[in-house]
Design a protein that fits this description.
Two copies of one chain form a homodimer.
Chain A lengths: L9 E6 L2 H14 L3 E5 L5 E3 L2 E3 L1 H11 L16 H8 L10 H15 L4 H11 L5 E4 L6 E6 L2 E4 H7 L6 E7 L8 H8 L3 E6 L4 H9 L4 H7 L4 E4 L2 E2 L2 E2 L4 H7 L6 H7 L6 E5 L13 E4 L6 H19 L2 H8 L4
Parallel strand pairs in A: 1-2, 1-9, 2-5, 9-10, 10-13, 13-14
Antiparallel strand pairs in A: 3-4, 6-7, 6-8, 11-12
Helix pairs in contact in A: 1-2, 1-12, 4-5, 7-9
Chain lengths: 331, 331
């Protein structure tokens, strides 16, 4: 009996932006409300007086079926009247906000100012757009990803959007991490007795997944669940499917590939999913590995990879405790 | 030689929303940068975290030629993607914000939060849209029009937009008026030695013009200029061209017509412009009166009325001092 067929089994996915949202969509198709996606909010920032949560929005839009299929972020059938008008007024144009997308930021900001948590606001926005799975920001308080580069220290969106990832990264920091804590909802997701596994989506490990694990107590809660954790490599044959993962690995003195990513996740994950193209690397990895097609072009690709992840979790379930003891928790 | 031909003569217009903006446009055609429009900000409010200045925006859009010609407010060629998306997210829909219009509120709010004055922000927005005349908010601080009605106390936009002026008004208050003061720019406009006259546009005297005169020191500065003040009646044959002026006058126990409006402005204005239809009322008015076409349908109508106002100012100029002494200032 396949994992997804177990009617009460729940899963948690950890996700950054576009790549993570793609696998989350596959998982959502299989699991519906039995899926909780914990999303990176290290990219969040204040822009034009609005609280913008880029990765949370990508998760919501993708799972709601309203994402722009060409970019993987923003909304489909979008109009751009606001940006055109804003630029005529001399407003900042480097972060492009579509007219419909803007409604998300305005409504989020309005609710946050009224005292709602980011978790509560996210739940409202996702529900309004018809999302059945649960989308949780990794924490409610501020934890901001900041990069030290050859061009100085940059806030994440300045680096990622304004500078188009061109600066050379020297180090990555998570400002406010010391004061952050997992939300009650995140802790409850890991403590759920119906939890059957955790999937770390193929997001950038340094920029998108590390901020999640930087929330004090979050990885401890994940490991304390005793459930298998499976990570999917965002690198195929040394190249990132999207974004600066390969470039950043090189800048950090690493080899862009599954081996150094698996090493980065050592102690945190019980199984590693690599692309079939990288099948030969399996022997070099110190943890159970599954090779499959990880490139997600079609919806079927996403569902197939999701099914592989769930099956892998089921396969690891019997051996998780032993394996965890052998590796020791990284924290 | 007509007033508008006097190359250095400057004029100040006091204006509320749509009706006032129409005459301002006529004046702007004749005067260009020699016109300063002081605009009511008693209608300003905070909505969706944005500082919205409805009358200032109507002035800017009208003088910039980008106003929606069907409504007289908002922008032409507007799109409504934001509002549709906001309502799907459960956001408030009673105040309609077009996508391009939204850029004005976002940029204004951003600049105010950065410490710019409302006057500075208004100047920037107007200049960005190519307005040559000067548009000044009546003050930089908060002064909010509040109406006490049979349905309780309402903020102005709640009364005007959300409740569509249906509640019966018992009284009108200007919250924060005691702490308000004219901006240096407003005082400078009245102190300008090139000032040749002041035109009170055909806006609602109680809701749109009174808030301007409620700014402590503003009417004193206007009268101290010693220049003729001409007001245009917003009522033609007992009916308001637009908005609730006639309804409000009745609710306040007044007769909806030029006579009670002239009485309201007694001591503040030196001349009164009424519609030709009301020509018979001229004898009942205690101040110099000019009857002309005041309905502004076409641009030519606006320019013609503007020319009438300037000529009337010129005509009154020789008699102003004597007249003011005779009437005494209302303050």
């Amino acid at each position: 009996m396949s994992a997804q067929a177990q009617g009460s089994a729940r899963y948690v996915a950890l996700s950054g932006g576009v790549g993570g949202a793609k696998l989350s969509l596959g998982l959502a198709h299989l699991l519906g409300e039995r899926l909780t996606v914990i999303v990176n909010t290290g990219d969040d920032f204040e822009h034009l007086g609005l609280h913008i949560s880029p990765d949370v929005d990508t998760a919501i839009y993708t799972l709601a079926g309203v994402v722009n299929p060409e970019t993987g972020w923003g909304r489909r059938d979008e109009t751009w009247t606001f940006m055109q008008a804003l630029q005529r007024l001399g407003g900042p144009g480097w972060f492009r906000l579509g007219d419909a997308d803007l409604a998300t930021h305005v409504e989020r900001t309005r609710r946050l100012r009224a005292g709602e948590t980011l978790t509560g606001t996210t739940a409202h926005l996702a529900r309004s757009l018809g999302v059945r799975s649960r989308i949780l920001p990794m924490c409610d308080g501020p934890l901001r990803t900041v990069v030290d580069t050859d061009q100085g220290t940059l806030a994440f969106q300045e680096y990622f959007v304004r500078e188009q990832c061109r600066p050379v990264i020297r180090s990555i920091r998570f400002e406010g991490a010391h004061a952050a804590k997992p939300s009650p909802e995140v802790l409850a997701a890991f403590a759920d007795t119906a939890l059957a596994g955790i999937i770390v989506c193929p997001s950038n490990p340094w920029l998108s997944v590390d901020p999640i694990f930087a929330v004090p107590g979050l990885r401890e809660a994940m490991r304390a669940s005793g459930r298998p954790v499976v990570a999917v490599s965002p690198i195929i044959a040394g190249r990132a499917v999207k974004g600066p993962t390969a470039k950043i690995m090189q800048e950090l003195g690493l080899q862009a590939g599954a081996v150094d990513i698996a090493r980065h996740y050592a102690g945190l994950v019980d199984g590693f999913v690599i692309d079939s193209e990288d099948r030969a690397l399996a022997d070099k990895l110190a943890i159970p590995t599954r090779a499959t097609r990880t490139l997600m072009t079609t919806l079927d690709d996403k569902i197939a990879l999701a099914r592989d992840c769930l099956d892998f979790c089921a396969e690891l379930a019997g051996t998780t405790s032993r394996h965890s003891q052998g590796q020791g928790a990284r924290s």
